[in-house]
Write a structure and sequence with these properties.
single chain, alpha+beta, Alpha-Beta Plaits, four-stranded antiparallel sheet, two-stranded antiparallel sheet, 23% helix, globular
Length: 108
Protein backbone atom coordinates (compact mmCIF):
# COMPACT_ATOMS: atom_id res chain seq x y z
CA UNK A 1 0.00 0.00 0.00
CA UNK A 2 1.38 3.41 -0.93
CA UNK A 3 1.93 6.16 1.59
CA UNK A 4 -0.65 8.96 1.72
CA UNK A 5 0.82 12.23 0.44
CA UNK A 6 -0.85 15.59 0.64
CA UNK A 7 -0.40 18.34 -1.95
CA UNK A 8 -1.03 22.05 -1.41
CA UNK A 9 -3.66 23.73 -3.62
CA UNK A 10 -5.88 26.79 -3.49
CA UNK A 11 -9.63 26.42 -3.11
CA UNK A 12 -11.76 29.09 -4.73
CA UNK A 13 -15.45 29.41 -3.89
CA UNK A 14 -17.28 31.69 -6.31
CA UNK A 15 -20.77 32.92 -5.45
CA UNK A 16 -22.70 34.61 -8.26
CA UNK A 17 -26.09 34.77 -9.94
CA UNK A 18 -27.08 31.61 -11.80
CA UNK A 19 -27.59 33.64 -14.98
CA UNK A 20 -23.79 34.00 -15.17
CA UNK A 21 -22.96 30.31 -14.77
CA UNK A 22 -21.83 29.86 -18.39
CA UNK A 23 -19.59 32.93 -18.20
CA UNK A 24 -17.94 31.65 -15.02
CA UNK A 25 -17.43 28.06 -16.13
CA UNK A 26 -16.11 29.20 -19.53
CA UNK A 27 -13.62 31.50 -17.79
CA UNK A 28 -12.48 28.62 -15.55
CA UNK A 29 -12.12 26.29 -18.55
CA UNK A 30 -10.05 28.87 -20.46
CA UNK A 31 -7.85 29.41 -17.37
CA UNK A 32 -6.98 25.70 -17.39
CA UNK A 33 -9.06 24.46 -14.46
CA UNK A 34 -9.42 20.67 -14.70
CA UNK A 35 -12.81 20.53 -12.97
CA UNK A 36 -15.26 22.29 -10.72
CA UNK A 37 -18.39 21.66 -8.68
CA UNK A 38 -21.48 23.83 -9.13
CA UNK A 39 -23.84 24.08 -6.18
CA UNK A 40 -27.22 25.52 -7.10
CA UNK A 41 -29.92 27.36 -5.25
CA UNK A 42 -27.61 28.98 -2.66
CA UNK A 43 -29.09 31.34 -0.08
CA UNK A 44 -27.56 33.79 2.37
CA UNK A 45 -27.11 37.41 3.32
CA UNK A 46 -24.62 39.92 1.98
CA UNK A 47 -24.13 43.56 1.10
CA UNK A 48 -26.94 43.37 -1.47
CA UNK A 49 -29.38 42.03 1.14
CA UNK A 50 -30.85 38.62 1.84
CA UNK A 51 -31.01 36.01 -0.89
CA UNK A 52 -33.41 33.16 -0.36
CA UNK A 53 -33.38 30.07 -2.49
CA UNK A 54 -36.61 30.09 -4.44
CA UNK A 55 -36.09 28.14 -7.61
CA UNK A 56 -39.18 29.03 -9.62
CA UNK A 57 -38.72 28.49 -13.34
CA UNK A 58 -34.99 28.21 -13.96
CA UNK A 59 -31.61 28.47 -12.30
CA UNK A 60 -30.91 31.99 -13.62
CA UNK A 61 -32.78 33.74 -10.81
CA UNK A 62 -30.89 32.14 -7.90
CA UNK A 63 -27.38 32.29 -6.53
CA UNK A 64 -24.94 29.49 -7.26
CA UNK A 65 -21.56 28.58 -5.83
CA UNK A 66 -18.76 27.17 -7.95
CA UNK A 67 -15.98 25.39 -6.05
CA UNK A 68 -12.59 24.73 -7.62
CA UNK A 69 -9.25 23.45 -6.38
CA UNK A 70 -6.30 24.73 -8.39
CA UNK A 71 -2.53 25.03 -8.31
CA UNK A 72 -1.39 28.46 -7.13
CA UNK A 73 -0.27 29.49 -10.62
CA UNK A 74 -3.89 29.43 -11.84
CA UNK A 75 -5.07 31.93 -9.21
CA UNK A 76 -3.84 35.11 -11.01
CA UNK A 77 -5.59 34.42 -14.35
CA UNK A 78 -8.80 33.44 -12.56
CA UNK A 79 -8.67 36.55 -10.39
CA UNK A 80 -7.88 38.71 -13.43
CA UNK A 81 -10.87 37.29 -15.31
CA UNK A 82 -13.38 37.71 -12.50
CA UNK A 83 -12.29 41.14 -11.21
CA UNK A 84 -14.01 43.18 -13.98
CA UNK A 85 -17.08 40.94 -13.70
CA UNK A 86 -17.48 41.61 -9.97
CA UNK A 87 -17.06 45.36 -10.59
CA UNK A 88 -20.46 45.18 -12.35
CA UNK A 89 -22.28 42.20 -10.79
CA UNK A 90 -23.05 41.01 -7.27
CA UNK A 91 -21.07 38.11 -5.92
CA UNK A 92 -17.88 37.19 -4.13
CA UNK A 93 -14.89 34.87 -4.29
CA UNK A 94 -13.27 33.16 -1.32
CA UNK A 95 -9.70 31.83 -1.51
CA UNK A 96 -8.23 29.37 0.96
CA UNK A 97 -5.25 27.05 1.28
CA UNK A 98 -6.13 23.36 1.15
CA UNK A 99 -4.42 20.01 0.78
CA UNK A 100 -5.55 17.16 -1.44
CA UNK A 101 -4.48 13.55 -1.55
CA UNK A 102 -5.02 12.89 -5.28
CA UNK A 103 -3.16 15.63 -7.12
CA UNK A 104 -3.85 13.99 -10.48
CA UNK A 105 -7.48 15.17 -10.19
CA UNK A 106 -6.49 18.84 -10.00
CA UNK A 107 -3.18 19.44 -11.79
CA UNK A 108 -1.20 18.08 -14.74
Amino acid sequence: MSELRLHALKKIEIVLEGAHRDFATDLLDRAGVKGYTVLGDVSGKGSHGTYSSHLMFNGDDVLIMIVVAVPEELVPPILEGFTPFFDKHPGVMFFSDIQVSRLVKFAD
